[in-house]
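Q: What would this chain look like folded?
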Amino acid sequence: MHEKNSFLIVSALAGIVALAAPAAAQIPTRSVPAPARARPAAPTAQQQQQQTQAPSTPAAGAPAQTATVAPAATAPAGYKIGVDDVIEADVLGQSDFKTRARVQADGTVTLPYLGAVQVKGETAITLAEKLAGLLRAGGYYAKPIVSVEIVGFVSNYVTVLGQVNTSGLQPVDRGYHVSEVIARAGGLRGEAADFVVLTRADGTSAKLDYKKLAQGGPNDDPVVTPGDKIFVPEVEHYYIYGQINAPGVYAIRSDITLRRALAQGGGLAAAGSIKRVKVTRDGKELKLKLDDPILPGDTIVIGERLF
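A: My prediction, written as structure tokens:
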């Protein structure tokens, strides 16, 4: 009897376990969520003010920022190297070849491995190709990447002086017209005369009308050659005072007559007399007609009429 009761109890427990297993299998597994990260506290007004006032300094080890420096003037791409020019030759990744040298009187420069190399008449591009070929042929480098820069040009240039925005030396790599050289020099200033003076390397000079340079044909705009000088003088003036409405100093921009000079001065004042106009030139007093020319430095005096 006791054994029978024990068997019944064991069977009942087995049935309960069998029923509980499917129910447990249906309960989803839920992971405990990770605690939310605490948001950084908003800076106080005092902290914001300190951050605003604090100067921005680079972090330790960070490269310092340097001011941008404007590059120096360089020769044009087609500029041909001449005596006394300074060139810089370099091979990519080969610091032992980098050389800056001045062209000697015989047209050569001395470079590492190659010795004296003839460079006169070459451009930066053609010289770079020439040096690369010589380095390959000599077995110094298998595939050299050569760069050449003309850092100083003194052999092929035109001198531009006077009333231009950028006076100095203008390198020439081809036949430039006078108007082109003036344009490369930044054009004329406001006080420039209406003509320029071209002086050739042999000392001969010519006075060129600026309007014809800008608007005329090739014959009015000559081609410059190395060694030429272009001078733009300051505008010339004449002086007018006396019984004139606007006395003062006036620029002579073109051929001007006495009639035009009086008109530029605002005309005669009420007390002025056309018969009492005198012109002083080179210390001499002249009596000019209305259509006679006024020259630079002339002084015009309008006298008072007699009532």
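The two ends are 169 Å apart (CA to CA).
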